[in-house]
Amino acid sequence: MIDPIGGDTLSQLIKHLDYDGSVAVIGMTGGNHFDSSIFPFILRGANIIGIDSVYTEMKVRKHIWRRLARDLKPAQLHDIKQTIKFDDIETHINNVLEHKNSGRIIIDFEA
After folding, report:
1. Backbone angles phi, psi at 104, to 5 degrees
2. What is the CATH number of domain 1-73?
3. Pairing status of strand 2-3 against strand 22-25
């Protein structure tokens, strides 16, 4: 798994790791602390891997970005996003707050 959020989200992801599973933590927008026990790590051989890109050379970053845009790009990526007009934002915010949304919302300010 890849966790760009951290905090409580990481706590929940750890509970769902399979035997010998790993979660790569790449962000902490949800907080820099998480609640867990030692059991997933001992009983299931779970791993947490911290990913730091701050000191990665620009040449390496560009190579990775190209791969993400091409051969590593998920085929179903277009299925998990929707584009909305700015005028429709209130409806979509309410849907997000009521947990009626999945995926990502892109706001088109020129539509």
Report:
1. -120, 150
2. 3.40.50.720
3. parallel
